[in-house]
Amino acid sequence: MKVMVLGGGGREHAVVHAFSRSKITTELHCCPGNPGIAKLALCHAGDPCDPKAMKDLCTWLGIELVFVGPEAPLVAGTADALREAGILVVGPGASGARLEGSKAFSKTFMKKHGIPTSDFDLCTNLAECEAALKKRSAPYVVKADGLAAGKGAFLPETYDEAVAVCRMMLEEQKLGTAGNIIVVEDYVEGMEMTVLALTDGKTVRILPSSQDHKRALDGDKGNNTGGMGAYSPVPWVDDVFMKKVTDEVLTPTLKGLEADGIPFCGVIYAGIMIKPDGSLSVLEYNVRLGDPETQVVLPAFGGDFGEAALACAKGELCKVEWPGAVRTALGVVMASGGYPEAFEKGYVITGTDEDVPNTFVYHAGTKLDDKGRLVTNGGRVLTVVGLADDLPTARERAYARIAGIHFEKEHHRNDIGDKSLKRGK
């Protein structure tokens, strides 16, 4: 098939890589792509958030299957436009994308359909925020309702800091319209993990488990980020636990979408907190694969991801083989110094082209400069992945590969996977 992947980050590089190894793929395209993706697919200029432009591009190219990577095009309705043109799509329409596009909608949806989540208040002015915060104690959880490029969730340590965060969004409009509604919710203590699943609206199939590392600095210190590293599968997650996730989270989610008349074909991402007593609490939904989770989940997955995506888009997910994880992958994000705050771009990157067995280097914030050199072009620049039969070896391979890659002011965490290794011991 002629396949198009929409997006241009590390997640999309991993998806393109997976499709490049699939027996269904005869021609592979990406819009807009990046220098790493360009080695595997034909890249096209364009904005995935422009539904008409994407429909016209895919129709012109004769694309038969589209995989939508980021959340913004899904919220914008790009999947709807492609389906109207008769193209198979993995990714929900705009109505289903509200599960991620609006935190207020998703929390209300979970409460309505009995999906475990923390108690919350929805606030539209500072007085309501102050009242909601006074009902709770530190650490506080404050979230923007709308999409904020992974930067809309805050964990202030004091009441005054929490009020300042609310003021920043509501009155100073630092996050634009995304901060017009504020979600203030209870803090949930425990171990965080990510569950990624494909669904055609009837069948749900879970991809290998993974654990993201959100904070910028070692020891889970520093600011929240879009993710500084991940590994898959999570060694202490077994079939019994995943059945619990399916029964308490995924199945009720599908039933709730059906009850509300919302068609859904694509990815359900559940960010889950496992409380000390073993109970679950859903922190958030996403409606696309996670980043950097995808960069480790897809290499760990033992099936043909292209076949799985095609079956999902055709409503035949129940027919596809599903071997789960067959290897362990650990990925470390190499970021620009200063990320997630202000950072500089344009630094030359070296060492990415070396062929090292059992490692992958997925591009995210990169571009070619006017001299044809690979340079930094974002906060999260690369995800470096080690692949092995066990977590310690995968970790060793990832960090060994990082040692050979260089760019000025580079920053990465040195403790990806450490919690799980210590838990295992």
Oligomer: single chain
The CATH architecture of the largest domain would be 2-Layer Sandwich
Distance between the termini: 46 Å
Which spans of ≥5 residues are poorly predicted at pLDDT below 50?
A: none
Rg calculated over all Cα atoms: 20 Å
Proportion of residues in β-strands? 25-35%
Helix coverage percent of residues? 25-40%
Report the sheet with the most strands, covering strand number, pairing sense and barrel closure: 6 strands, antiparallel
Examine the coordinates and then state which fold CATH places here, giving the name of the CATH topology of the largest domain: D-amino Acid Aminotransferase, Chain A, domain 1
CATH class of the largest domain reads: Alpha Beta
Structural class: alpha+beta
Described by the principal axes of the CA atoms, the overall outline is globular
Number of helix segments?
Answer: 13
Can you give the mean pLDDT? 95
**Name of the CATH homologous superfamily of the largest domain:** ATP-grasp fold, B domain
Number of strands: 23
How many structural domains can be distinguished in the coordinates?
3
